[in-house]
Amino acid sequence: MNVRKVYEYALEREREGFEFFQSNAERMSHASAAGIFRRLADEEQMHIEFIEGKIQGLKGGQPVSPDVEMKEGDFFEERAASESLDQTVIESMVPDLPVLRMAYLIEHDLAEFYSTAAERAEGDAKQALSMLAQWERGHEKLFKNLHDKILQEYMEMPWGG
Questions:
Q1: Looking at the domain assignment, is residue 115 inside a domain?
Q2: How many independent structural domains does the chain possess?
């Protein structure tokens, strides 16, 4: 496996994710969802910098090691979910459902890519790719839960909202 090619592909996907979250943050009708998208854009930027560091390390003959520890995990997921799900005006988020679904799919696909690449990698590259997969799984879970919660509440609303 060509680790550099894997990182270069990942870098392009992370840049696309950054653009998606940044541009959709401005379009979201729900303030908390927009805030989640802005924070995710910031985190995608950290992923970009992490991967750029890995590529730079490969170019310079440096070992590829996950030397950055991002604090995304449960705190981010719980805080973002509670901020958005505590809102009482779910109707305002209905137009955002397709965007939330797309965000989930982006994170899901990237997590799958990292997991598959990690299975084939060895040593430090395996560790770095596994870490990236874990970060993306957290984002995937967040968007899946958010989408499903809003969809469920929408389906239980009386006709006409």
A1: yes
A2: 1
In a domain, 51, yes or no: yes
Q: What is the pTM of this model?
A: 0.79
Backbone φ, ψ for residue 45 (5° rounding):
-65, -40
Q: Which of 88, 84, 103, 96 is nearest to 40 (CA)?
A: 103
Give me the sign of the Cα torsion angle 122, 125, 128, 132: negative
**How many degrees, rounded to 5, is the angle at CA 14 between CA 75 and CA 100?**
60
Whether 74 contacts 111, CB under 8 Å: no
Residue 51: what pLDDT?
94
> Is-contact 37 24, C-beta < 8 A?
yes
- Residue 64 belongs to domain with CATH number: 1.20.1260.10
Q: Are 146 and 107 in contact (CB under 8 A)?
A: no
